Amino acid sequence: VCVCVSQQTFLDIFPDRPVLQFHTPTMQHFETLEWKIRELETRLQLRENEIQRICHDNEKTKEIELEALNNKWEQALLQKVGCCFFRLCGAEKKRKERRRKLSTVLPSQNTEMERFRTEMDSILDVLRQLRKQGVRIPV
C-alpha cells in the first residue's frame, strides 16, 4: 500500500516522467538523464519562442514609433513651412538621436540572445555526448 501511494504521488507530481521501479539503478539513472535532457530541450524551445516573440514585438514597436514620428514631423512641416526652420533643425537632431539609440539597443539584445543560444547548445551537446559514452552523471 505504501509503495502504491508513493508511486501515485510520484505520478501526480511528475505525470510525464516514467515510473522506474522495475529498472536497474543504471537504467533508472539513464532514463532520468533522458528526462532531464527532454526537459532542457523543452525549456530551450520555449525560450527560443519567447525570444522570437520579443524580437518581433521590438521590430513592430520600432516601425510604429518611426512611422508616427515621421508623420508628426511631416504634418508640422506642412503647417509651418519656413517660419520655424530653425526649430525643425533642432527636432531633426533629436530624431536622429532617437534613431541612433534604437539602433544601438537592438544589436546588443541580439548579441546577448545569441550568446545564450550558443551556451545552451554547448551544454546540450555535452550532455548528449556523455549519454552516448555511457558516462554516469550524479543527479
Quick summary:
The chain is mainly alpha-helical and 139 residues long. Helices cover 83% and strands 0% of the residues.
Task: Describe the model.
This protein has 139 residues and is mainly alpha-helical. Helix 2 packs antiparallel against helix 3. The chain starts with a helix and ends in a 6-residue tail after the last helix.
Tell me the structural class. Answer: mainly alpha
Largest β sheet strand count, sense and barrel closure: none
Low-confidence stretches: 1-5
How many β-strand stretches?
Answer: 0
- The amount of beta strand, in percent, is under 5%
What distinguishing features does this structure have?
single chain, 139 residues, mainly alpha
How would you summarize the topology of this molecule?
Layout: H1 2-13, H2 25-79, H3 85-133
Helix pairs in contact: 2-3
